[in-house]
Amino acid sequence: MIHLLKIEYSKLRHYSTFWVMLIIYAVMVPLAIFGFAQLERPPLLNGSDKLHFPHTWNFVTYVASIFNMLLGILVVLIVTNDFNFRTFKQNIIDGLSRGQVITAKFLIVFVLALVVALYTILMALFFGFLYSDEIVSVFENFYFVGIYFIQTLGYFTLAFLLAILLKKPALSIVIYAILFVFKFIFYFVLGAIGSQFIPMNIFADLTPFPILQEQIAMLEGPQAEGFALIISQPIRTAVAIGYIIIFIILSRVILKKRDL
User: What angle (nearest 5°) sits at the alpha carbon of residue 168, between those of residues 167 and 174?
Assistant: First the structure.
């Protein structure tokens, strides 16, 4: 496994676009969190209050999820480069099996999602300690990081699947961006119930806006009926994991049958 990761890292080490996009992500996330924290109007938002422990875990993962499209595009570029520069074929010539080549690519995507989750933990801890008046319940709601990791992996595996299906970076990025940005279109096409089960919508809903979470929690009886169609977090998470497994299986099947 380490050997396969080293091979993938050797491809990325001198790939300037990879490092530039990671740096942009690493800079934009804390700037966006800080920007939200300055908002005091409308009163319902109270941006800085959302960064108090334990709310910071939900708030930071929500803000970080906004920039997952950038990282998804990065995954598209990483995968399509192997087609464009024929490094898939070169790895096989150098002695790797087709299965090892495919596994190596999935490993680097998994590690990238893990690194992003670890960075999000650091951001949540930093802003939590910065804005919290009393340091209590630090790791309450920490589960949002695990959910964010699943969300990130979901976006990445979908980007991976699009990249190997289309093999063209520009077309793959355009379709991925359209799916990411215009998720709400499925609501008009499939209705409130059906649209919730679309992969991009399921992934997006894993890290809901904190205010929405609080509003739903406060509703009781007849008032809650307007939110009756919102899928619970456990179901969203389970469905998201199911989609990730499907995307991985489809990607492996396509790569095993396709001429690399």
Answer: 120
